[in-house]
Specification:
The structure is a homodimer. By secondary structure, chain A is of the alpha+beta class. Chain A has helices at 2-10, 104-112, 133-151, 154-157, 186-212, 261-270, 386-389, 394-404, 414-424, 451-457, and strands spanning 32-37, 45-47, 73-78, 87-96, 118-129, 217-226, 229-235, 239-244, 247-250, 279-280, 296-299, 308-311, 319-320, 322-323, 330-331, 341-342, 364-368, 380-384, 444-450.
Chain lengths: 461, 461
């Protein structure tokens, strides 16, 4: 994503630079600082965090203890767009203690009784833009925010049904409207915790970047395996899919200026001052110019999914709030995503117009009931940043998974090798199973998560 | 829908009255003023419009001319909730003339050359509340609004691809950002016309009701067959489904305070003054009371799909913006739907708090590509108001369709008979194919639209 962001930011409106030629095929691993997160005993970690003075040391989501960890496999490459990799990853075991909401004595209790109450697994990909700072902070912070949010509701999560009152206090009046409760499930609390964790992490990033004088933002794609379910939380344009023998199922959807057009236009309709008179909220099939004045042209406003015609007025000639299409679509001419973390300081070039009010840090969360699947050994979840999906479709990735795994059953590193294979398939090699030799010039990060072992390992407490 | 609305409006917060017992089975058609819209030469019309002084005469969507019409079959019953039926229906042939957008000479041209340029079919169901006035106005008006909106874009609809400029004027500058156009399809113009027609009709209803000192609102479900496609536009809690031999496909989704919770809470977050300090925006599993103060209870805000816990403050004890669940969910304690037409004057009982800002008149439009289906003779679309769907599931309706039609192939009125059968299945008869004897006490309207004849007839120009 970030490549496009840079291109558009410094070449607004201009043609894109010619793509770089594919790397020579003789060099099998020609990328700078690739790093493989293999689980075999190495403990959880953050991938490819550059050694910058401001980068925090890699911390484990499991309170710094080295825990057995071999459930997720990743490969990350740096496309050499920038000195430091803007893609960041984190994974680890998620250990949730028993902790009552906000009470001082609980923190004491936690210190005295540090054993885990509920354990799960955590994988996260962050695709930065405007520098790696936000992605590094997110990789170092989000799991802690999530653990805290989960600990605040864990008593409800382990109940057969989360109680209305966390304290167990119950009101039973005679008036039925005060008695009947909506049926809320444990998974609703995990979804709520993920939503709150993203927001908390966004606030932390905002404060840290401001304090250190840095800038930037990142997308965030998180998978959490907990109590027999896999939760996928997405804010941005990364993607996770489930690949099984006979099924390919998207587990996330992308949030871009195009997919969130109506929300973004609606906000500009409610708060027109956000555009400072420099942009038009309306969408047209292309940028309008003086010759179009007075013509009846196609347009869409915030309440419309269809198109209509209108007479072009002078204000319609302004730069569009959302411009371009597909990978080139930009919010305020600047940003290619509409959800993510950071970007608190981001402004439209040479103006005071802020991007942040249009960005949401709230993820969309989907739930996969792993315990209900009849899992096969080669059922996997593939998580990857947009660089992969620009070049490979869900079906192409599924074909690569299905052609690779059965022939490598004895290889203990086969999921890692598969992650490598997926990335290599985006580097213009036309002899792979996809056979079309498409090339990605973006940073790419991939997790391959085998569900079979997940189903066996996760979920207990 | 309206039954619930009345109940809750006059008994706020109280228990619902006991349901009326089912009608005696010996009386096969015991309802007041049922009316069957059979197509055999009777021409288009509006069903069951009461003879009120303010009710306009029934007009045909086809500019008042009697046209051959036998493509839609409806049955409407009045559940005797009110003197006049709050359910209204309209159907007819939709004849769209060639008309340039807004120009004076076009109206002249239309008068001189009145022949149709494009024809389609139109079916609409309106479920009123607070009286039948809005539903009657909608049944008499919406098709005219739609015809007008379609005539404004018809030149674009019949082009291979709708032109950016309706006038055909083309700008070809050298800068690529002014050249590349988004690919917009003819169906996007029809969707836009439906969206605009609903809004226009809503404005007409607002003006007419104000001028005549009447009140009320209605839901609207519209199907339009045009150029080989079926467009289903829905604002409210009616529903349309496609029933085929091996497939049941929803063609609409319902808009209620529950399904639109986040949009409604978001609006109250942006404009808290809309609640006048009388309601809380937050959702809780049940209404809170004094005993809950200071407790940690489950809640949801506008940005949350999941649930979390919070300490109850005094402001949380206010009546919730959305209260109740399922069929009992109410917006501001008053209304069971969140989209529709009318309600411009509707206020929360004994307050000045308006409902209208929370209601959308914009429909959601889905498109069924009829030409791409391999149609069988018994493929139908069933459109019905919520009274039917309260009692029968999509699958139950499909079973009734599949068991009824094959045995009645020779009956020229079989689609009408099927509409009757569907309604009779909601009146507590336990000997029908559904066998569960559920009872609906709401007005019910049903259209059964055979697609096979549609596919053969519609689409030309």
């Amino acid at each position: 994503m970030s490549a496009g962001w840079f291109r558009r930011r410094f070449l607004p409106g201009g043609p894109l630079p010619a793509p770089r030629p594919p790397r020579p095929r003789a060099s099998p691993v020609p990328y700078r600082r690739p790093r493989f997160l293999r689980g075999s005993g190495s403990g959880p970690g953050t991938a490819d965090a550059p050694r910058r003075p401001d980068a925090r040391p890699v911390r484990s989501p499991a309170r710094g203890r080295a825990l057995p960890w071999n459930a997720g496999y990743a490969e990350i490459i740096n496309a050499e767009k920038s000195e430091f990799n803007e893609d960041q990853a984190a994974c680890g075991q998620l250990c949730i203690g028993r902790c009552e909401f906000g009470a001082e004595e609980d923190r004491e209790w936690l210190t005295l009784c540090p054993e885990e109450f509920l354990t799960g697994h955590y994988w996260a990909l962050f695709d930065g833009h405007g520098g790696p700072a936000a992605a590094i902070l997110a990789a170092n912070t989000l799991h802690s925010c999530l653990r805290r949010q989960l600990e605040a509701v864990v008593e409800g999560m382990v109940a057969t049904r989360p109680p209305m009152h966390l304290s167990g206090h119950c009101v039973c009046p005679s008036d039925p409207q005060f008695v009947e409760e909506k049926g809320i499930r444990a998974e609703d609390l995990v979804i709520g915790a993920l939503e709150s964790a993203f927001q908390e992490c966004d606030e932390v990033i905002g404060r840290e970047l401001e304090a250190s004088g840095q800038v930037g933002g990142c997308t965030a794609l998180v998978a959490v395996s907990l109590q027999g379910k896999l939760y996928v939380a997405n804010a941005g344009d990364s993607r996770a899919i489930l690949v099984r023998k006979d099924e390919v199922r998207p587990l996330s959807s992308e949030f871009t200026p195009e997919t969130e057009r109506q929300r973004i236009q609606q906000l500009a309709f409610v708060y027109p001052e956000l555009l400072a008179g420099e942009f038009t909220r309306l969408e047209f099939p292309r940028r309008l110019k003086g010759d179009d004045l007075g013509q009846k042209v196609l347009f869409r406003d915030h309440h419309m999914r269809g198109w209509s015609y209108k007479c072009v007025e002078k204000s319609d000639l302004k730069y569009p709030l959302i411009h371009g299409q597909g990978r080139q679509a930009r919010l305020l001419g600047t940003l290619a995503v509409s959800r993510g973390l950071g970007d608190h300081q981001l402004r439209v070039l040479d103006t005071n117009i802020q991007l942040k009010p249009f960005l949401l840090s709230v993820p969309q969360v989907t739930v996969l009931d792993v315990d209900q699947l009849e899992l096969q050994e080669e059922d996997v979840v593939v998580m990857a940043t947009d660089g992969l999906w620009d070049v490979l479709s869900n079906e192409q990735v599924a074909r690569l998974v299905r052609s690779f795994l059965p022939g490598n059953r004895e290889d203990p590193h086969r999921f890692s090798e598969l992650a490598q294979t997926l990335i290599h398939s985006t580097q213009g090699k036309d002899d792979g199973p996809t056979g079309d030799g498409q090339v990605s010039y973006d940073d790419i990060s991939v997790f391959v998560i085998p569900l079979h072992s997940q189903g066996q390992r996760s979920g207990g407490h």
